[in-house]
Design goal:
Radius of gyration: 23 Å
Structural class: alpha/beta
Strand content: 25-35%
Order of helices and strands: HEEHHEEHEEEEHEEHHHE
């Protein structure tokens, strides 16, 4: 349930940040009105857009319905989950086009107003062993006072942001260095991972041991030792439990204090 909620929030934030209108969002079913840009990115219709532009027409971006609730996967729409091609497509787009950004909250202040620096990261945690699963987290860290906020992309999606700072605003210099800030975020993720049920890792190690015993039983002669070692290495690589973090994208956001 928690993983589905993280994915749902991530998708809403992604599409809102790319100016797409959310037409429906209920019980793990999201319908999005794509912009022309996002239609071109996600829907694989190059010939349609080439024809439309050649004819001088504005074009008609598609609507996309994504289903994150496994109990609703048979309803009309596209079942999206960690590891699905559609999610990988979105993550790949972020990594290639929006890996790092620097944005300012747009306001109309009456007096000179400070903007606080926030380090924001979207991080994918991957659990790899006998089975594989991923989780997505969006975390913001105030680089002045150390305040940390989860689901940060959802917050940012509601704010007017721009690449230039508003008149009568000024930025505060970070008290926490970026490298140190990222380490703080990593520590929070470490604590989260440590508190999870690690039965999956036990299952993976048991599967590794069983496969290794079968391999030793199959290869009985010394002349086959080299082949056995190669296959044992492949089995170990496949079943050995691993947990990795991957930064999907992130950036430095200068915001007013009223978001936390």
């Amino acid at each position: 349930m928690a993983m589905r909620n993280h994915l749902n929030k991530f998708l809403i934030s992604f599409f809102q940040a790319n100016n797409c209108k959310i037409l429906h969002n209920n019980d793990g079913i999201i319908t999005i009105q794509l912009t022309e840009k996002m239609d071109k990115v996600l829907m694989n219709r190059p010939f349609y857009w080439h024809y439309i532009k050649k004819m001088g027409y504005p074009g008609d971006p598609m609507q996309l319905t994504l289903i994150t609730n496994p109990h609703k996967r048979d309803e009309k729409g596209e079942w999206i989950h960690f590891g699905s091609p559609r999610l990988q497509q979105i993550i790949r787009y972020l990594q290639e086009n929006e890996k790092y950004t620097k944005l300012f909250q747009q306001i109309t202040p009456i007096v000179h107003t400070p903007l606080y620096p926030w380090l924001v990261t979207n991080i994918k945690i991957s659990y790899k062993g006998k089975y594989k699963r991923d989780e997505l987290f969006s975390i913001g860290l105030n680089l002045i006072n150390g305040t940390m906020k989860s689901d940060m992309m959802q917050t940012l999606a509601q704010l007017p942001l721009n690449t230039t700072i508003s008149d009568f605003c000024y930025t505060l210099s970070p008290m926490i260095k970026l490298k140190s800030g990222y380490k703080r975020i990593e520590t929070v993720l470490d604590q989260y991972v440590e508190n999870q049920d690690h039965g999956w890792a036990v299952d993976s190690l048991q599967a590794l041991e069983e496969e290794a015993k079968l391999l030793e039983h199959f290869y009985k002669t010394d002349t086959e030792d080299e082949q056995m070692e190669r296959e044992l290495e492949e089995i170990t690589k496949r079943y050995q439990p691993q947990i990795t973090y991957q930064v999907v994208n992130g950036g430095l956001f200068y915001l007013t204090t009223d978001i936390a």
